[in-house]
User: Fold this.
Amino acid sequence: MLKYIVKRILQMIPMIILSIVVFCMVRLIPGDPVTMSLGMGAGKEAIAAETARLGLDKPLWQQYFIWVKNLFHGDFGTSISTHKAVLYEIGRRYPNTIKLAIGATIVSTVLGVSFGILAAVKHSKFTDNLLMVVSLISISTPSFFLAMILMLIFCIWLHLLPVSGFDTWQKMLLPILTLGTQEVGYITRITRSSMLDVLGEDYIRTSRARGVSERVVVCVHAFRNAIIPVLTSVGLRFGSLLAGATLTETVFSIAGIGRLTVDAVSQRDYPLIQGCILVLAFTFVVVNTLVDVLYTVADPRIKFD
Assistant:
């Protein structure tokens, strides 16, 4: 196991390629970060001095190597717009995004797995068809539209929950439900498909013939052998939740990394954009590594080289 984890860590080295792509793409964004930082009325001398201070007057390849060298020292640079360390800005916002993604993952996994198992057990019946329609609606509904509907019902009509913020569980509830509900459809379909494959196996029919209760057959024997695709789906969806929480964070005024990235792009804040994207990419790799390790817990037959 340790050898496998070390191997996966070494596989993160190709993130260097990602860093090059991010570094170059960020600089293709129209607009001058120095002019946006100082204002349109800034003089040429002030702009030239600030450009030199930020190192933006150097060749692009030299800027990249300086940035990478600083990364190895734990320095992600300083935000052009706020004049604070990039890691400080990310550290203030990232916990909210992590809480939002974890909460949404729990909601989507619990509901998606439950609906998927029920749909597989009731295959080709009314319940199965109904759940497939519900999952399709879940996948098709944009998160911002669902957020507005939930705000209209629970905040304006019923006055049960606050409209914005993320510092209490009451404020966390609607954003988590909004983001998690959209993922329910994906996990429901994956769970249903995987369960249908397993429920048709000979050992399931043998268990039923031996008089094992249907609950044990479905929830223990079948689901345990169908869980690998579900784990993969949950891991991938968690990564997408981290990167895709921007709309939800914006609608509910949550100070998260997704909203921070959008603000950084609008202000042409190169160091902040680069830092946010790299942190999200690194988290995605770590989450998928943890999911791969969980495979051995779900199925001891799986061995890692």
